[in-house]
Amino acid sequence: MSPAPSDSAAPVRPRATLAVTAAATALVTVAYTAPTASLAATAQAAHLGATGRTWILTGTLVGISALLLTAGSAADDHGRKRVFTSGVLLFAAAEALAALAPGGTVYLAARILLGIASAAVLAPALGLISHAHPAGPERIRALGIWGASVGLGIAVGPVYGALVQQWADWRAVSGGLALVSAAVAACAAVGLTESRAERPRPLDPYGVLTLAAGTTLLIAGLAEGRSGWARPAVVALLAGGVVLLAAFAVVEATVREPMLDLSLFRNPGFIAATGGALFTGLSLVGFMSYLPTLLQGVLGLSGLAAGGVLALWSGLSVIAALQARRLAARLSATAQVALGLLICGLGEAGLYGLTPGSSWLRLAPGLAVAGVGSGVLNAALARLAVSSVPAHRAAMGSGANNTSRYIGSALGVAVTVAVAGTPGPATTADTLATGTDHAVLVAAALCLLGATLTLTTRTAPAPHPARTR
Question: Across the 469 residues of the chain, what is the mean pLDDT of every consecutive 10-residue run?
């Protein structure tokens, strides 16, 4: 897969492209994870109840998952720079709305809008990088840096959110991100070069509608199910989501110009990319997103301290992703995904045995091992996302990969909450510690299952010829 020539005589700037896309990706993950270490305080300050607390994170997930694939397809057909820059501008507007929200309802609406903007940022990012960096070691290095930006955002987000919440208030968390994202949007407008498919395809409206509605209902059902899975509303949401996602598959199999070409699932590399991303969200991101809440309930840590503990995992993932390029000459991207999941599973298993009287240092070895595995995994998934699809569909490949990751994350959080339980007046620290141990074992087992399934695929075949301009 070779980089495509740009639309105009403007030169392609590889360093600027990588810096802008990595910075925007880090911002997306900062914005998503910022409330995790101070979720209760933010919900209380915004006058949101238990359901509203759930939707602070779920709302963003809904927006991201519903539109990632659509944003990727639109970027390939109508301009990756255009979609990316628009996404960063919308991101700034969503954070500004959250900062100025008069109450909880508007704040939650802003979080959903933030998810939509995040989809428009994440989906074109890998397409822009692959366009600016020729295939080979330079692209592998660039994709490793992009993977590191994911871990960097996760490391910074909870600490940033807790610090600003402590020093100022919940509005200032969003206000700061709005200012930074506006600056990134200006850099994107100046530093990026446009690229798109040689023959833009028409919109796939039925695919867009069935995918967006299906993922929205599915994630809403997973969020509401934390209060009881047998409730009629929850069953209806989950069933509706599954039916609409099945309808999406039927639509894509029958329309002449599908948003997602289902023949890609005959490519083992594409299967490994989407399946690996799904298990990353299910077994790793979902569990780690809820870990600060569990640490506060079991160990009595403050939100800032819990975010700092989580940063040990995500911070090491940054270092590992930056060094993962050294594995490229020895391992295929598919084998690297399996290795990353295996290491993450071993690290998560090392978190077993948490008790109310233990120190957070008890978790350090397991978090360190899982952090190394996460970095290896993030770099490998970025490689597969662009190498397993035709060159002119690079942003779509990124959208499909990230859609799987975020749907997996929603499933993972639901599984973790169902197994571990939630802190509250009726839940003792000992009970929560037992539930956390059970959640640790489930997460580790899912990592190992994901590694095993990934190894059943073989290395992706040679990519299709480029058709971009």
Answer: 47 89 95 83 78 80 89 90 96 96 90 94 92 88 92 91 87 94 95 83 88 92 83 94 95 90 89 93 90 89 88 93 86 92 96 90 94 94 87 83 89 88 79 93 96 78 42
Q: How far apart are CA 128 and CA 109, in angstroms?
A: 29
Q: How far, in Å, are 201, 251, 274 from residue 207 at the CA level?
A: 13, 6, 18
Number of neighbouring beta carbons within 10 Å of residue 120: 29
User: What is the Cα–Cα distance from 297 to 433, expressed in whole angstroms?
Assistant: 8
Nearest to 382 by CA among 331, 333, 452, 316: 333
Question: What's phi and psi for 458, nearest 5 deg?
Answer: -115, 170
Rounded Cα–Cα distance for residues 361 and 257 (Å):
54
Q: At a CB cut-off of 8 Å and minimum separation 6, what does 465 contact?
A: 390, 391
Alpha helix stretches (DSSP H) within 79-193? 80-100, 104-132, 137-167, 170-191
3-state secondary structure of 55: helix
Q: What is the pLDDT of residues 383-428, one digit of tens each?
A: 888 888 887 788 888 888 888 998 998 888 888 888 988 777 767 8
Report residue 207: phi and psi, to 5°: -65, -45
With contact defined as beta carbons under 8 Å apart, do 155 and 315 qualify? yes
Q: What is the DSSP string of 241-290?
A: HHHHHHHHHHHHHHSSS-SS-GGGGGSHHHHHHHHHHHHHIIIIIHHHHH
Q: Indicate the pTM of the whole model.
A: 0.85
419 and 428 Cβ atoms separated by less than 8 Å: no
Please report, to the nearest 10 degrees, the dihedral formed by the alpha carbons of residues 136, 137, 142, 147 taken in order.
Answer: 100
